[in-house]
Design goal:
Elements (H helix, E strand, L loop, with lengths): L6 E4 L2 H13 L5 E2 L10 H6 L1 E2 L6 E5 L9 E8 L4 E9 L6 H16 L3 H4 L2 E4 L12 H13 L9 H16 L6 H10 L4 H37 L1
Antiparallel strand pairs: 1-6, 1-7, 2-4, 3-4, 4-5, 5-6
Length: 235
C-alpha cells in the first residue's frame, strides 16, 4: 500500500547551510514561508523562512503558485549537528493531503530544489519506499499475533475487551522485542482494510505508538535505574 515517503539529505554542515541559503534566495518558484503563525519562534525567523532555536535549524518553503502540486508548506529540519536534513512534514493550506499528494510535493521539492544543487553542495539523498507491505516489516510470528488479534477482536470496539486488549498488547510487546516498528500510517490503513472503522483503527494505532514508546523508554532508563538502586544499596 502507498505510504507517506521520507526524504533525507546528508552532507557536511557547510554544504547544508549553502543549500539553505540558495533555497532562500532562489528555489525555482518555491517561496520562503513567512506567515505570522503564533508558533513561529521570533521576528527574525519570519524574515527568511528559517525556524527554530538556532539559525538554519529549520527551513520552510511554500509550493510554487503555478504548479500542479497542492498549495502547501514543506518543513525541512536539520539533525545530527547540522549534517543531516529531513522533511519533517508538509502542511496543505486547507483540508489534508493524501499519500499521493504528499509524495508528489516531496518529489517536486527534490527535483526542483535539491537535485540541481546536490553536486555543488556535495549532498546525498535517500527516499523511503512509496509502497510498503505489512509483510516487509513484520516477522511471521508477529504477523500471526497481529492477525490473531484482528480475527478475534470486535471490530466496533477495537481493544476495549480485556481479552482483545491482552492480544493487542502481546503484539505490541513482541514488536518492541523484535525491533519491528510499523509505520503508523501503514498500520492505520491496514487495520481499516481489515474492517475496523477508521476512528477505531486510529485509537489502536495510538495505543500501539504509546505502548511502543513507553517500553522503549523503560528499556533506555533501566541501566540508569540499576545504577541508582546500586547506590542506594551501598548506603
Amino acid at each position: 500500500m502507498r505510504v507517506f515517503q521520507d526524504l533525507t539529505i546528508s552532507g557536511s554542515s557547510d554544504g547544508l547551510q549553502k543549500l539553505r541559503l540558495e533555497l532562500l534566495q532562489s528555489a525555482d518558484g518555491w517561496r520562503p514561508f513567512v506567515r505570522n503563525d503564533e508558533w513561529m519562534m521570533n521576528d527574525e525567523s519570519k524574515k527568511d523562512g528559517s525556524f527554530g532555536s538556532e539559525a538554519g535549524h529549520f527551513i520552510a518553503l511554500d509550493t510554487p503558485r503555478s504548479s500542479r502540486l497542492r498549495s502547501a508548506t514543506i518543513f525541512v529540519q536539520l539533525k545530527n549537528e547540522g549534517q543531516t536534513a529531513c522533511v519533517g512534514n508538509i502542511f496543505p493550506d486547507s483540508d489534508s493531503l493524501s499519500q499521493e499528494e504528499y509524495n508528489a510535493i516531496l518529489k517536486g521539492f527534490y527535483v526542483d530544489c535539491i537535485q540541481p544543487r546536490m553536486e555543488s553542495c556535495h549532498l546525498k539523498c535517500v527516499f523511503s519506499a512509496e509502497f510498503v507491505n505489512l509483510e516487509d516489516t513484520l516477522s511471521q510470528s508477529n504477523q500471526s499475533l497481529l492477525r490473531e488479534f484482528v480475527h478475534m477482536a470486535n471490530k466496533s470496539t477495537g481493544a476495549s475487551h480485556p481479552y482483545d486488549y491482552d492480544r493487542w498488547m502481546t503484539f505490541v510487546g513482541a514488536s518492541v522485542r523484535d525491533e519491528e516498528h510499523l509505520r503508523t500510517d501503514l498500520l492505520t490503513e491496514w487495520l481499516t482494510e481489515q474492517g475496523f472503522p477508521h476512528y477505531i483503527a486510529s485509537d489502536l494505532v495510538q495505543q500501539y505508538k504509546f505502548g511502543f514508546d513507553l517500553i522503549k523508554k523503560l528499556e533506555r532508563d533501566a541501566p540508569h535505574k540499576a545504577e541508582q538502586d546500586a547506590v542506594h544499596a551501598d548506603r
